[in-house]
Structures are given as C-alpha cells and as structure tokens.
Amino acid sequence: MHSKGLLVFVALIFTLPLIFLVSPIPVHAAGITIAPASGSVGTSVQVSGNGFSGRLATINWDDQIILTRIPISEAGELTCELKVPSDCKGNHIIKITDDSNWTSSTALATFTVLPGMQIFPRIGRPYTSVTIIGNGFSPLEKDIRVAWDGIVFPNSATANHLGIWSINVEVPPSKGEHYIGAFSSFTDASEIEEVKFIVSPFAKVKPLSGPVGTEIQVDGFGFRTSEDGITIMWDKRIILTNLIAGTDGVFSATLKIPPSTRGHHKLGVFGNDFMPIGEIPDTDFNIVPNIEVQPTSGNKGTKVTVNGTGFTEDETITLSFEGTPLNVKASTDNTGSFSVAFEALQSRVQDNKVKAIGSAGNSAEAIFIMEKIAPLAPTLLSPTVGEKLGIFDSVGDVFLGTAKHLIGIIIFSGSGQQGFGVPNVTFDWSDVETEAKITYDLEIARGDNFSSQVLIKQGLVGSEYTLSKDDALGRDSYSWRVKAVDDIGGESPWSEVREFEMIPMSSQVLILSLVIPFLFIVAIVA
Questions:
Q1: Which CA distances in Å does 107 have to 32, 47, 61, 171?
Q2: How far from each other are the two terminal CA atoms of the chain, in whole angstroms?
Q3: CA angle 17, 20, 24 (to 5 degrees)
C-alpha cells in the first residue's frame, strides 16, 4: 500500500516538469507600437505587436473591446489597423491581450485624442444648410462656436459626455473655396484643423501662374449629375470642350496654357443651358516670360535655337551668352512669342546662362550645357620676369656671330636692323591638363605692345619652344605670352605677360671675348 503511494508520488515528480515544458511560456513580455500616436476621431492607426504567446488577440480601447480575433503569427507577432472611436479629448489606453491568458502576453499603448470636425455636405450652392459635427472635445464642453473664413456665426453648441457636438449653419453667397473652423473658451482654434467647403458652381485652377505650356488642372463643382458639354475658355476662346461631370456633379481636366502675352488672362468654364457662360466666376492666370534652348548642350560653334514665349507683343529681343552680348535680335509676334538662333560661344564653364531681354523690360533665362569647356590658361615658367638673355652665349658665338653680322650688313645693306645671331633661348610653360588634344600659341612682342608682334608661333604641340635661326631677336626689351587651344577650337585666356631683355652677351662672355684675342696676339708677338 505504501509502495503504491510512493510510486504515484515519484510519477508526479517526473510528470509535472514535463507539463511545464510543453506549456506556452512566453520568452519575453509582449509589446506594441502605434502610428500615429495622436489624432482626431476616425483616424486610422497602424498597430504592430510582438512577443505574444497565443494565436488570437483582442484589442481594447479604455477596457472596451473594439476588435477581436486578430491573428498572431508563429513568431508571436501581429499587425492590424483600427479606427479611433468617438471619445473625448485626452489620453486613452489601447490594450492588447491574447488567448494564452499569460499576464506577460498583454501590452499597452497610449493614444491622444485631438478635437476635430466634419461637415455635411462639403459642396453646396449659396444658402445651403450645412451640418457641422465636432468630436474629440472635452466632456460637456460649452460655448463652442463656428467661424466661416474667420467670421464667427452667432449660434453655439455644447458637447456631450463623449465630446461630440453639432451645429447647422447657412452657407453665405460667395462662390469658391471657404474654410470652417471652431473654438471655445477651453479649446483654441489652432487645435482644430479647418475644413474646406466649396460654394458652387465653382471652378478651381492649379497652378495660377506659369509660362506658356504650363500644365494646369481644372476642377469644376456644382454641375448636374453626369452633365456633358462642359467647355473651358481662354480669354473667351474655346480651348477644350465636351467634358462630362461625374454623378456628384464634379469634373476634372488637365490642359496646357496656350501661347499668350505676359500678364493676367481669364480662364472660364461653362456647361449647357443649366450652366451658362458667366455662371461660374472666371479665374485669373498669370503668364510669365520663358525661353527654351534647342539643343540643350553642345560645344563652341553649335547652332542653338532659342524659343521664347510670354513676352509682350512686338517686343524687340536681344540675347546674351554667359554675360556676353550676342549679335542677334528678334521680334515677338502677337502672342509674345519669338524664335532666333545663334552659335554657341567659347566658354570656360559647363552651365552657360542664355538670357533673353526684351525692350519692354521682360526677360527670361535658360541653361546651355557646354560638353567641352575651354582649357585653362598655361602658367609661364621661363624666362622669368625681367630676365636678361644673351644673344651670344659663348666666345665662339661672339666671333661666329660677328662674322655673320658683317656678312649680313654687306648683303642686306639698307634693309633695317639685323640680329647679331641666333640666341639659344627656350620659352617654357606648364602643360594644360584636359581630356581634349591641346596645342599652344606663343606670341612675343617688342615692349608690351602685342598689336605688332615680332614673333607668332601657332599650333605648338609641346609646352616649350626654342628659338630657331629664323627667330633672331635683336637687342631690346620684349614681352611674351601663351594660350592653349583645344581640338574643337576652344581657346584659353592668354597667360600672364612676362617681360625679358635681350642683351649682346653676359659680362663673363664679354671679358673672355676681349682677353682671348689679346692673349692670342701676345702669343704671336712673343
């Protein structure tokens, strides 16, 4: 007997741990997130949760069940959407529990209810009765007032225990979009988002300003159900017709602004006999000047066509390219439009501003992209500033050059100043780094007057040049400069100008030239 009891006790000892092992114990406490965490009644709230142990969840709003049987995944996660129920202003608790009945499978979040409004209907003709319903106010909040475009209606309302109230107002006669707000001594008007009401018939245009070709959207309100034959006019000229309203008497259309002069123009909408011309107020659209370039990119010499719109009728147009005036002109037609072409100038920037300026003061700009920009200016290396260069670099040059000079005097007598020799002078400058193939132009002028150069070398491949026998420079002061030219003719600015001086010979060469002949004579005499 005792042995049986002992066996039952031992069995319980081994069985109970197994029961606990197979029970759904949560690994960690459940948690939820909500987005947004505040809003008015009716706001959609996304709920995400994890760490749950059961298979189905229930959602409570302040202990009142609002959703049931929300599925939970094998990983203990859930997602759902809920609508904020009618309740008063302030914080409220969203609680989620699952069917495991574990206390750690419960999660809470706080949602803040804000005051809000709804109106019925949202579109109506003058003197229509509109019902305004407020919610999310404080319980039994008093003296709630309604304003129409800031003008307060005389009647007021009191909220119930859930913060709900309502007022009926009569729509004023002004057609168009109007905004309804609410406030009280306890709730400021800034806490409540205004609600839009449209007094029909009315046409809304977006945007209200832009260049010719701007795509606009026209929304019309207050037409009969499925009314057809709706027409849009521009300055009393039909530009779109045969539009059809929906079952709610609303239509929507998109169109592009036609060629027109700068300034304000009238866009009108009308229907059939039920909605004649003038029933719907016209809308002002402001045309602004605009230009477009074709093509939008290229290089020096590319032919570019400029098409302009939105200028004044018979206006004279001049163009500039990155600030440089162009030798082209155009005149606008009766719609303020023009077209003119020019050849792209050389430029050292990629984005070049093309500007059209009219004689009536109108202007517009566009960008032309230079695919290959002009190279940068080289940097001069040698000769340095003010350097003195000898015509005769050695004693041998002195005697040989003198002999050549005497022969030159005999042969070219009366032909002007002759050079004494060919100086061994090299002009050196920095390489210009660019993807294009670069050549260089070298200019040397007497003094600093480059209008009458004494030496011009163009198309030099390397970044240095040594004077040849044809480049003899006489004794004088000179200046030199260099520019780079790419393979499409784009030119850099000229480099800085450097001065140098050509002298017959250095002091050392002069002394040796005198001493050597003297020693030679002494040796012969001795």
A1: 6, 11, 12, 47
A2: 158
A3: 160
- Average pLDDT of the chain, as a whole number: 87
**Domain spanning 290-370: CATH superfamily:** Neocarzinostatin-like (2.60.40.230)
What residues contact 406, with CB distance under 8 A and at least 6 apart? none
User: CATH classification of 380-509, choosing from 2.60.40.10, 3.30.450.40, 3.40.50.280, 2.40.70.10?
Assistant: 2.60.40.10
- Which of 288, 292, 272, 291 has the alpha carbon at shortest distance from 280? 272
**Does 328 have pLDDT greater than 60?**
yes
- Which CATH number is correct for 202-287, 3.90.1300.10, 2.60.40.1930, 2.60.40.10, 2.70.150.10? 2.60.40.1930
Quick check: 129 pLDDT over 50? yes
CATH among 3.90.960.10, 2.60.40.10, 2.30.42.10, 1.10.150.120 for 31-113: 2.60.40.10
Top-level class of domain 116-199: mainly beta
Please indicate, yes or no, whether the overall pTM of this predicted structure exceeds 0.85. no
Give the separation between CA 225 and CA 203, rounded to whole angstroms.
16
Report the range of poorest mean pLDDT among 18-22, 97-101, 297-301, 317-321: 18-22
Mean pLDDT, residues 250-263 taken together: 97
Three-state DSSP at 197 gives strand
- Mean pLDDT lowest for which of 10-24, 376-390, 445-459? 10-24
Phi-psi region of 466 (alpha: psi -120 to 50; beta: other; left: phi over 0): beta
- Asked if pLDDT for residue 416 goes beyond 50, the answer is no
What pLDDT does 28 receive?
64
| Tokens representing residue 473 in the block | 């420079």
Sequence-ordered alpha helix ranges (H) in 249-394: none
- Give the pair of three-digit tokens for residue 472: 């003899």
